[in-house]
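Lab meeting, item 3. Inverse folding demo.
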């Protein structure tokens, strides 16, 4: 049988085209697998979207589960003498403050030298601070210039900062020694350059001394002294930053606006979650399109558990349901805030509002219940992770099925190609035989005619 290098050469038939059509038909077996993989991947993506919204809602609930959220205060300062930073343990109240003077750091300069790079000789510089601390800094011969001494002091980091100034005189270069902090405790009580070497050249200039001063202020008539201009403890939970001498009044009030904002953010987060769940389970009759999780039992279970907590009763306090504080459930499943009712709860019954969301010693509050419920959905081996892992396993199984199907298709096409090749050769052989016989008959007819 003749050998055919390319299908169709021997027979004249479009066997390659026919083989391509057969391969295309065979590969249709892969389409359902691919489609199912895309469907599962779309569900995983949808679970990711749902997880993000559940995380946001849990974060909003966690804020209300913390009773300190309802202790939040804010401050208002009148006057330019100071600024204030309010901490978590600050209490409402008004405080009149008088800043008599700010704290000041100590500094002193040495007598001048002619050349700041000239070596002055090895030695040790001893310091004593106002709090009784003392230390020495050794200076080698190679480091004994004014610049080298400056660098050695600064690198030691012992509470003394050194710098150089030029006063323009015949011996202009001075070493300035400054306390790194304000107040008398951090002041430089004494400095000794020793004898010989540094001590023969350097000495402090008493006329340049700037003494350290502690801050002096009064809070509601009580005199207070501070080493620093950052005063803590003078007003509970409030840090005072002194700016200038003068009077100021600090008003610390309950941050009712912030508390209401936390509640409304909780409502907005729930509504956003509800909107996402509605979108994921939607169905458009006109277009026939549906959400990725339409009919999904996992999502239905999540929605049911959240609504069960949201619509449940909180025991142990004056408020037992969201409606009691002005948060109502609407027909479309979202929440709506009655501002007047919520404002009244924040302003007049903050303790009961705190108990409703954060709970008491005897019972869990609504936010605490939600935090626990959502934690089971979002944690390791939780509802979302289990559902996603199941889909990933299915996708992996479909991938293996795809490879097996593809191998089977390739084997089938290879068999078809072999069969077509044999057919092509056989037809070519038959055509060759037919041509030979035709020639023989034509030759025989020619002889008979003669």
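The presenter then showed the designed sequence:
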């Amino acid at each position: 049988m003749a050998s055919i290098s390319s299908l169709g050469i021997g027979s004249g038939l479009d066997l390659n085209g026919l083989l391509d059509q057969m391969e295309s038909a065979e590969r249709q077996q892969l389409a359902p697998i691919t489609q199912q993989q895309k469907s599962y991947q779309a569900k995983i993506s949808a679970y990711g979207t749902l997880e993000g919204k559940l995380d946001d809602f849990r974060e909003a609930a966690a804020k209300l589960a913390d009773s300190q959220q309802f202790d939040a205060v804010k401050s208002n300062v009148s006057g330019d003498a100071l600024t204030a930073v309010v901490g978590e343990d600050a209490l409402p109240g008004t405080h009149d403050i008088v800043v008599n003077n700010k704290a000041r750091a100590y500094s002193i300069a040495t007598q001048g030298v002619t050349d700041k790079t000239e070596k002055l000789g090895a030695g040790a510089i001893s310091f004593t601070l106002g709090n009784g601390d003392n230390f020495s800094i050794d200076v080698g011969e190679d480091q004994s210039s004014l610049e080298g001494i400056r660098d050695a002091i600064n690198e030691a980091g012992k509470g003394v900062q050194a710098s150089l100034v030029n006063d323009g005189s015949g011996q202009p270069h001075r070493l300035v020694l400054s306390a790194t902090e304000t107040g008398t405790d951090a002041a430089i009580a004494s400095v000794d350059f020793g004898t010989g070497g540094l001590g023969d050249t350097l000495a402090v200039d008493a006329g340049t001394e700037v003494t350290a001063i502690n801050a002096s202020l009064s809070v509601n008539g009580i005199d207070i002294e501070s080493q620093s201009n950052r005063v803590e403890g003078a007003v509970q939970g409030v840090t005072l930053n002194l700016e200038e001498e003068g009077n100021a009044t600090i008003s610390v009030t309950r941050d009712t606006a912030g508390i209401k904002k936390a509640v409304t953010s909780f409502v907005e987060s729930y509504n956003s979650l509800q909107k996402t769940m509605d979108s994921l389970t939607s169905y458009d009759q006109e277009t026939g399109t549906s959400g990725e999780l339409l009919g999904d039992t996992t999502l239905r279970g999540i929605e049911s558990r959240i609504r069960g907590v949201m619509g449940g009763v909180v025991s142990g306090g004056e408020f037992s349901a969201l409606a009691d504080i002005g948060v109502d459930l609407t027909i479309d499943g979202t929440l709506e805030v009655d501002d007047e009712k919520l404002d009244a709860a924040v302003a007049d019954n903050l303790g009961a509002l705190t108990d409703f969301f954060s709970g008491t010693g005897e019972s869990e509050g609504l936010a605490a219940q939600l935090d626990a419920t959502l934690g089971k959905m979002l944690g390791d081996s939780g509802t979302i992770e289990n559902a996603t892992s199941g889909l990933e396993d299915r996708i992996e199984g479909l991938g293996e099925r795809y490879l097996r199907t593809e191998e089977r298709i390739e084997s089938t096409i290879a068999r078809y190609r072999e069969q077509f090749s044999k057919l092509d050769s056989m037809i070519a052989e038959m055509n060759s035989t037919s041509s030979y016989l035709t020639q023989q008959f034509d030759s025989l007819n020619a002889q008979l005619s003669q």
